[in-house]
Specification:
- The chain is α+β, with helices and mostly antiparallel strands.
- It has a single domain (about 1-190), classed as Chalcone isomerase, CATH 3.50.70.
- Helix content is about 35%, strand content about 15%.
- It has 5 helices and 6 strands; from the N terminus they run αααββαββββα.
- Strands 1, 2, 3, 4, 5 and 6 form a 6-stranded antiparallel sheet that branches.
- The radius of gyration is 17 Å and the shape is globular.
- The relative contact order is 0.18.
- Residues about 1-15 have low confidence and may be disordered.
- Bound molecules: heme C.
- Heme C binds near residues 138, 168, 177 and 178.
Length: about 200
């Protein structure tokens, strides 16, 4: 009886349990830096549903809800969650919508990313004690040429693990790194090479 109640509680409040206490059931029990690709994938497989439930919870305000609801139906660009050391050492998985998938998946220098492209990146972290924490959902939208010259017509958005839109100064928090370090790739960082899915 106690077990049943507890299971119901975890199902209904899985996302908030994750926020509050870490994803206990998904903890790999060793530091994130020691995880193999397969082990990171196993953590993700365990976490995936709660992660998505979290991102899709609540109002999104200026962030289009349909994009947050749909991105997992877009083209997956990562073969496993890799932690390249950016975005706070988080493990990352990237999806691209139909408009931009073909061009993004070339991982080219100077790609011609069409306006209307959306890119979504999930994240989670594993600390030195081997505890998992959901991370934000990162979004980029390519808008019509000339709309936002200072960001090369990229809009940046961020959704917290509990689904709240996060207001950040996207110039300093996002664009300066993307444009400054990856301007030669159209402002795109791309997954690390061993984690790229090709066309
Ligand atoms: C310190 C540098 C840096 C900062 C700051 C940064 N990013 Fe990134 N971003 C990267 C790198 C590197 C990648 C590719 C890494 C990967 O996917 O494995 C990337 C990838 C992405 C992607 C997938 C598309 C791509 O570039 O391949 C999205 C979406 C994204 N970032 C959004 C954001 C948003 C939103 C912010 C601000 C809240 C942000 N980033 C801040 C470096 C940065």
């Amino acid at each position: 009886m106690i077990a049943t109640t507890r299971n119901i509680g975890l199902t209904a409040f899985g996302a908030s349990v994750l926020m509050a206490g870490g994803a206990l059931a998904c903890d790999p029990g060793k530091p994130g830096s020691e995880l193999t690709g397969d082990e990171a994938q196993a953590v993700y497989d365990c976490l995936a549903e709660a992660l998505h439930d979290g991102y899709t919870s609540g109002a999104k305000q200026w962030i289009p809800t349909d994009k947050v609801d749909d991105y997992r139906n877009w083209t997956l660009a990562s073969s496993f969650p890799a932690a390249p050391g950016f975005h706070d050492n988080r493990f990352l998985l990237t999806w691209v919508n139909d408009v931009g998938a073909e061009e993004y998946l070339r991982y080219a220098e100077n790609p011609k990313i069409p306006a209307g492209t959306w890119i979504a990146k999930e994240s989670f972290s594993v600390n030195d004690d081997g505890n998992v924490r959901p991370g934000p959902l990162f979004l980029m939208q390519k808008v019509q040429a000339g709309t936002s010259p200072e960001t090369d017509d990229w809009y940046y958005m961020l959704v917290a693990p509990n689904g709240s839109p996060m207001g950040v100064d996207v110039m300093t928090a996002c664009s300066e790194c993307h444009q400054g370090a990856y301007g030669f790739q159209g402002g795109l960082g791309y997954p690390v090479e061993e984690a790229r899915i090709g066309q």
